[in-house]
Amino acid sequence: MTPEIKPVVAGNWKMNGSSNSQSMVRELVAGYDQKLQGQVDMAIFPPSILLAQTASWLSGSKISCGAQDCHANQSGAHTGDIAADMIVDAGGTMVLVGHSERRVDHNESNDEVAAKARAAWQSGLTAFICIGELEAERRSGKTLDVLAEQLAGSVPDGATAANAVIAYEPVWAIGTGLVPEASDVEEAHAFIRKQLVERFGNAGATMRILYGGSVKPGNAGELMAINNVDGALVGGASLKAEDFLGICEAYRNMT
Ligand code: 13P
Question: Is 78 a residue of the active site?
């Protein structure tokens, strides 16, 4: 944790969910709004086709929602893509950019990720900018170099604690059940914080840095206790209300 920074637990549903997800969202709202909202922010990122429905299910709740990606342009001939303004129109307030699955599956470069973050800001969205090393990069001792390069290339000038959240997700920890040693998470987050402070000053000191990769109710407390871990970006465990709320509980117990 970072004193003075309210953590956020964010759920990335990836390509999961349907109109039947309403009951799960209802459970989240009931569990979150009653006892967690004071200590932890919560956000969910459903597939964009479910975003407007999800926003309506969340109406009146303190849980925020957003999309998993946006295009760098606001309109035009880009079949299959969605614009940041459309996310706003659907009721979203945030967007993930640069998730490793997009960097790998869609060959997204740092420049493209930065352009998407700028588009998000133009529409008033908070950009959750994702970075993280591949297994081979970690093995060859290049983790911090990769993080420096991704931060420099993917986070545009003008980032603030309000418009940007950094999500550190070691690619090899995503969906594998593998989690880095606490000391490795601490080293990566301290490094990210230092880079952010050097570049953005006070804004960098207060920007949230999330950890993602196999976060579960059982390991969330230990991860949250690490310096500069200001929340979690959760994949698989965000698909069950009980697990996702369990992760939030672990964070609440720290505050
Ligand atoms: P898992 O929690 O399933 O490992 O996914 C992490 C992730 O990629 C969140 O964006």
Answer: no
Q: Which residues line ligand 1 (CB under 6 A)?
A: 12, 99, 169, 174-175, 212-215, 233-237
Mind listing the pLDDT tens digit for each residue in 15-60? Answer: 999 999 999 999 999 999 888 888 999 999 999 999 999 999 999 9
Nearest atom of ligand 1 to the alpha carbon of 45: 10
**CA separation (Å) from 90 to 102, 105, 125?**
22, 25, 12
Ligand 1 mean position to 77 CA, how many Å?
31
The residue extents of the domains of the chain are 8-251
Q: Has domain 8-251 been given CATH number 3.10.310.10?
A: no
pLDDT, tens only, 151-171: 999 999 999 999 999 999 999
Q: Known catalytic residue: 27?
A: no
Residues 6+ apart with CB under 8 A from 219: 179
